[in-house]
Q: What sequence folds into this?
């Protein structure tokens, strides 16, 4: 990877966002009817490589069920409004009507309500009763406290999602989560992230994780760059973590760890390029927050926006683009990449002669496309 000189005492590695690259069609094409978007996530066969972001503005029990019905996985935030309030719907209405200047302060007040373990069980049971894959997410800081409630509720896929998750968290005032021991003792696959470097992802893979979330998540709603000076250009991030997956496959004697792009994947073109860079699937926030059924009612926010001491995100208006099914499968009535995400992926795969998602990871990309 090329480096540039910031100044005499500092050099930086050049990295690329998804906007910086484009997929180059190859010499071969394929009939779009012969293309499949299905994939295998641990024991679960999924029709589309899509997981919803565990964000209150994106995933409710109802939308998790609908995403599952459409062939993906809806991941519920188990520290969100649905596990803090018996009926949070009036709060979603209030949040949608908040004045922008006071929105973060009010979000902090709303999310000060404690998480209730009985509501975790109730929400996950609701999704399970619908007959779809059940997935829930906790932050690293709450996992040790709440994981048993989640597992006892019958979760199929356990997600540990934070701004940065490492296999070696150092703390002098509390016992950190031992990821390797934790994952070993669970009977369900664990997806963990975010990871943004080759080394960080490789260490997470060595914990036994079934998948690694590549990126910080919360692209449109994140303010990490301006509040704490942290950013992760996603094209480079995905490619680096895909390299860690390849090397860990050799190191482990054949154990494949899934890479899920999480963050800055907001349009159909982003989905295509994320997979071409090496992702097995994508975790969608903004793209699904635009659905008519999304709880955020055209607004989008994540946990960073209501942090009690240092908010690192905003409540942002993303608007609505159509029903969830139209966003995923079309038809599209605009050329802005907000609808028919899977149709766009199938078209790109066919235009490059690839028949499935794993093959499409080998697609050629260029910078400056």
A:
């Amino acid at each position: 990877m090329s480096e540039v000189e910031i100044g005499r005492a500092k050099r930086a590695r050049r990295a690329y966002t998804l906007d910086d690259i484009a997929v180059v069609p190859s010499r071969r094409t394929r009939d779009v009817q012969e293309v499949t978007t299905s994939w295998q996530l641990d024991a679960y066969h999924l029709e589309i490589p899509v997981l919803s972001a565990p964000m209150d503005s994106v995933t409710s029990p109802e939308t998790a069920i609908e995403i599952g019905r459409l062939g993906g996985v809806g991941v519920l935030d188990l520290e969100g409004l649905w596990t803090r309030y018996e009926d949070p719907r009036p709060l979603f209405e209030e949040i949608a009507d908040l004045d922008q200047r006071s929105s973060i302060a009010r979000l902090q007040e709303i999310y000060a309500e404690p998480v209730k373990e009985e509501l975790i069980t109730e929400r996950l049971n609701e999704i399970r009763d619908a007959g779809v894959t059940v997935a829930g997410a906790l932050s690293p800081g709450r996992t040790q406290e709440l994981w048993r409630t989640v597992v006892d509720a019958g979760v199929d896929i356990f997600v540990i999602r934070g701004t940065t998750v490492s296999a070696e968290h150092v703390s002098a005032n509390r016992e950190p989560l031992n990821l390797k021991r934790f994952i070993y003792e669970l009977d369900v696959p664990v997806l963990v992230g975010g990871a943004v470097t080759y080394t960080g992802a490789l260490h997470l893979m060595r914990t036994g994780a079934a998948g690694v979330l590549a990126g910080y998540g919360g692209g449109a709603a994140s303010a990490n760059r301006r509040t704490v000076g942290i950013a992760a250009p996603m094209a480079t991030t995905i490619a680096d973590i895909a390299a860690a997956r390849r090397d860990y496959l050799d190191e482990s004697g054949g154990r494949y760890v899934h890479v899920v792009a999480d963050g800055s994947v907001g349009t159909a073109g982003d989905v295509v390029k994320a997979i071409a860079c090496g992702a097995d699937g994508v975790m969608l926030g903004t793209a699904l927050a635009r659905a008519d059924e999304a709880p955020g009612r055209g607004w989008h926010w994540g946990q960073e926006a209501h942090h009690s001491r240092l908010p690192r995100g905003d409540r942002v208006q993303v608007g609505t683009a159509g029903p969830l099914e139209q966003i995923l499968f079309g038809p599209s009535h605009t050329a802005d990449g907000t609808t028919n995400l899977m149709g766009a992926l199938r078209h790109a795969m066919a235009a490059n002669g690839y028949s499935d998602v794993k093959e499409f990871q080998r697609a050629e990309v260029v910078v400056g496309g």
